[in-house]
Amino acid sequence: MGYDETNDKLIKATESLEEAEKQFKEVEGDVSALTRRIMLMEEEDKKSAEVLCSTITKLALTSKSADNVLKAVKVVESTCMNNEVTIEELDKNLRATIKMAVDNEQKLDELSRKLGVQ
User: Fold this and answer.
1) Residues above pLDDT 70, as percent of the chain
2) pLDDT tens digits, residue range 49-88?
3) CA dihedral for 33, 36, 42, 48, sign (positive or negative)
4) d(CA 34, CA 22)
């Protein structure tokens, strides 16, 4: 009976070993798949970092351009305000000149009538 017992133990040990090897291969496959996934994620992370860096650079350049545009807008606005003041002054002068011309024309008409009457 010692032989049968030993043989049963050997069979059970062999089955346990086969089961352990099967589990080991499954875990090894999982580890391998996870390792590949990590490598892919690291590559994706690297690409994302490069895209982010490029985007940040473009954003900085665009921001600088926007600042220059805002400066130009302020210059144009200032010029427009100065032009408006000049236009108002010229319009005021034009009205005064027109009034003087109308007044002088009336005086000329009056003088012409007086001279024509005499």
Assistant:
1) 97
2) 999 999 999 999 999 999 999 999 999 999 999 999 999 9
3) negative
4) 18
Our CA angle for 92, 94, 97, nearest 5°, is 110
Question: Residues, the chain, total?
Answer: 118
pTM of whole model > 0.70? no
- Count CA atoms closer than 13 A to 2's CA, side-chain side: 0
The Cα–Cα gap between 69 and 42 comes to 40
- Share of the chain residues as helix, strand and coil, in percent rounded to the nearest 5: 100, 0, 0
Cβ neighbour number for residue 103 with a 10 Å cutoff: 10
The 10 Å CB-count burial string (b at 16+, else e) for 22-50 is: eeeeeeeeeeeeeeeeeeeeeeeeeeeee
E strands in the chain: none
